[in-house]
């Protein structure tokens, strides 16, 4: 499979596991992969007649960076003991993860068509008993960070060097169980654990926007005016704040935490993102949390994501 | 006679001596559940997870994925009520190799009152696919179940009473998953019970013999899975089946027996247990009398039932 970057066509996945410094072309490739990932997610949801869009789109760039640049993984051997671990705690964004895993070679891209269908390995929410490459099941919100904590703790006890990444959502952060994990992880000094907050500022319905309040979407940011970074830091987390759609910031942050896996502090990467990022009419719109695109919308989406074969 | 919580702590220590993967996660009740014995013996493998029961279930799932055999230790209510969502999604739905040591089950929980009584846990846990549900009668069975559970690959819920009960089994005892155990034969009434309540049923059956009523006692240590044929076979020998449990009469052992018999061999089943009400803080004797579950109480109730049927 080839992708078109600014400098022409090159094989998709050239960047995989490359340890060289990121070049302009490498960044362009990540961007192209993220566009394709978004297209696969939204077109799959359209084909299945149900699924989420806004969350997968806000998380896409970070997941592409993880799977294609940062994590040491073997798609042909998903259970490789030394692999880096990734848990998508906001499990309703599953189609985003499946799309990236398909592009990375964990499953055939064609298989995405089975999403949400009876007998599929691609359940509405990630099911570890069905799809090799997942680390646990998620879906009921707030639970993934605890499992990641257990894996990271186990890795320390086994003296294994891999890193554990857990992506949580800002809507999900309202669940009490996450706060249990947030105060326990620093006690065990788990520098090999990184939580990534996909702070897109919107949830399924949420609260109405207040007058004169800063916002990225058409409903109220659930943590508006709250110093989350300060709270995380006081609980003992090292915090890195990034624009979750800027690959240079994403890659730098993720490589930084991997390199400091031996440290005595877990890291929270606070990623400022936009729900529905990548398509002008899905951005910042809570209704796109879960919505099926029409044929006409898909045509526009393909254009905006530069998916040429979809336009034929 | 030994308290099941002492058995719990001592058996964890013993298991850890031969299995390097055994870990214990505590939610700050180790000196009540007696997991503190393990904390002293294996401080590096004792993981204090604080007063945060949902998280510690998730952490155990992560540790299990790293090849460990984590035993979770807290009170029953905090598992089956507070942490039931992660138990359902993370443990049962993924068939994680996590062992749930549910202490202080039932109502005989040392003056804690209704907040800490758990009389719904059997109903909740046996409704959950992929979950194995065990309830030992005495110290010997408790230890045997813990040894079995540690070898078994998958989730196990172990329902442990707090206080001592007389041993009904001896050193020859072997736990077999699913099997029921006849503690006493009888041809008129069959008492079916689980946990230490089986011991009180055995005492009640002996009192009934003195009154000319032949009562058998069938102990069900393995609530799920359970050998249904054995229940049917035992019930077919008698005129009256009575289930007795330190648990609500809805959906627990009584529910299980009624379901099995109504499908395979319909007959009258009377359920003794907690009848849709909460408990209170009181000594064990008081509560057993309140809920009419002491041996003399059971004997008296059964005599009346038998008289009405004769």
How would you describe this protein?
- The complex is a heterodimer of chains A (312) and B (310).
- Helix content of chain A is 35%, strand content 12%.
- Chain A is α/β, with parallel strands linked by helices and 312 residues long.
- Chain A is globular, with a radius of gyration of 18 Å.
- In chain A, strand 6, helix 7 (247-259) and strand 7 form a beta-alpha-beta unit.
- The mean pLDDT of chain A is 94.
- In chain A, helix 1 (24-48) runs antiparallel to helix 8 (295-305) and helix 4 runs parallel beside helix 5.
- Chain A has a single domain, classed as 3-Layer(aba) Sandwich (Rossmann fold), CATH 3.40.50.
- The longest helix of chain A is centred in the N-terminal third of the chain and has 25 residues, at 24-48.
- Chain A has a five-stranded parallel sheet, with helices on both faces. In chain A, strands 1-2 form a two-stranded antiparallel ribbon.
- Chain A has helices at 24-48, 54-70, 94-104, 144-158, 176-184, 228-235, 247-259, 295-305; strands spanning 2-5, 8-11, 85-88, 164-169, 193-199, 238-243, 267-272.
- Chain B is α/β, with parallel strands linked by helices.
- Chain B folds into two domains: 2-165, Rossmann fold; 181-309, Rossmann fold (3-Layer(aba) Sandwich).
- Chain B contains 13 helices and 14 strands.
- Chain B has helices at 4-18, 30-33, 36-41, 53-65, 76-82, 84-92, 121-126, 139-151, 197-210, 228-235, 253-264, 284-290, 295-309; strands at 2-3, 22-26, 46-48, 69-75, 99-103, 132-134, 156-159, 164-165, 181-184, 189-193, 215-219, 222-224, 240-248, 269-274.
- In chain B, the strands form three sheets. A seven-stranded mixed sheet of chain B has the order 3-2-4-5-7-6-12, sandwiched between helices. Chain B has a five-stranded mixed sheet with strand order 9-11-10-13-14, with helices on both faces.
- Chain B is globular and about 60 Å long.
- At the A-B interface, helix 4 and helix 5 of A face helix 4 and helix 6 of B.
């Amino acid at each position: 499979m080839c992708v078109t970057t600014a400098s022409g066509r090159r094989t998709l996945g050239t960047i995989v596991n490359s340890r060289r410094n990121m070049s302009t072309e490498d960044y362009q490739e990540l961007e192209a992969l993220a566009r394709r990932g978004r297209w696969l997610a939204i077109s799959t949801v359209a084909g299945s007649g149900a699924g989420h869009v806004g969350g997968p789109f806000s998380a896409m760039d970070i997941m592409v960076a993880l799977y294609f640049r940062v994590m040491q993984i073997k798609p042909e051997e998903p259970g490789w003991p030394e692999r880096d671990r990734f848990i998508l705690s906001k499990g309703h964004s599953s189609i985003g993860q499946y799309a990236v895993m398909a592009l990375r070679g964990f499953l055939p891209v064609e298989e995405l068509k089975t999403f949400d269908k009876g007998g599929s390995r691609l359940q509405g929410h990630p099911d570890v008993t069905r799809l090799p490459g997942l680390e646990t099941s998620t879906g009921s919100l707030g639970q993934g960070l605890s499992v990641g904590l257990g894996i990271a703790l186990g890795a320390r006890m086994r003296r294994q060097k891999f890193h554990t990444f857990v992506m949580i959502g800002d809507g999900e952060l309202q669940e009490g169980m996450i706060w249990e994990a947030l105060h326990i992880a620093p006690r065990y000094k788990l520098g090999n654990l990184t939580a990534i907050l996909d702070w897109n500022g919107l949830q399924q319905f949420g609260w109405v926007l207040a007058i004169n309040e800063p916002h990225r979407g058409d409903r109220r940011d659930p943590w508006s005016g709250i110093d989350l970074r300060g709270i995380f830091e006081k609980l003992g987390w090292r915090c890195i704040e990034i624009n979750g759609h800027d690959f240079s910031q994403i890659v730098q942050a993720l490589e930084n935490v991997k390199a400091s896996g031996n440290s005595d502090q877990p890291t929270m990467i606070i990623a400022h993102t936009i729900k529905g990022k990548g398509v002008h009419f899905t951005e910042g719109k809570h209704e796109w949390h879960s919505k099926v695109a029409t044929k006409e919308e898909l045509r526009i989406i393909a254009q905006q994501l530069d998916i040429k074969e979809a336009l034929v | 006679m030994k308290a099941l919580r002492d058995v719990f702590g001592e058996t964890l220590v013993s298991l850890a001596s031969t299995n390097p993967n055994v870990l214990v996660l505590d939610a700050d009740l180790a000196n009540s559940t007696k997991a503190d014995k393990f904390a002293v013996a294996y401080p590096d493998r004792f993981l204090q997870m604080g007063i945060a029961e949902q998280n510690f279930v998730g952490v155990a799932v992560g540790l299990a994925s790293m090849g460990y055999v984590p035993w979770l230790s807290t009170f029953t209510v905090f598992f089956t009520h507070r942490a039931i969502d992660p138990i359902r999604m993370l443990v049962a739905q993924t068939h994680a190799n996590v062992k749930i040591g549910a202490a202080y089950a039932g109502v005989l929980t040392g003056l804690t009152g209704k907040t800490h009584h758990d009389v719904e846990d059997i109903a909740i846990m046996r409704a959950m696919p992929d979950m194995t549900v065990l309830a030992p009668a005495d110290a010997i069975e408790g230890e045997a179940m813990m040894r079995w559970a540690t070898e078994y690959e998958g989730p196990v819920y172990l329902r442990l009473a707090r206080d001592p009960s007389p041993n009904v089994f001896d050193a020859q005892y072997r736990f077999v998953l699913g099997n029921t155990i006849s503690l006493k034969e009888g041809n008129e009434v069959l008492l079916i019970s689980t946990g230490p309540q089986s011991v009180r049923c055995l005492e009640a059956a002996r009192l009934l013999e003195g009154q000319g009523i032949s009562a058998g006692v069938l102990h069900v240590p393995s609530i799920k899975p359970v050998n249904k044929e054995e229940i049917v076979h035992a019930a077919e020998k008698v005129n009256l089946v009575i289930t007795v449990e330190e648990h609500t009469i809805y959906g627990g052992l009584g529910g299980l027996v009624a379901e099995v018999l109504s499908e395979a061999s319909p007959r009258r089943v009377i359920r003794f247990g907690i009848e849709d009400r909460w408990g209170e803080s009181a000594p064990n004797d008081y509560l057993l009398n309140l809920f009419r579950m002491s041996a003399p109480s059971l004997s008296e109730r059964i005599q009346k039932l038998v008289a009405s049927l004769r």
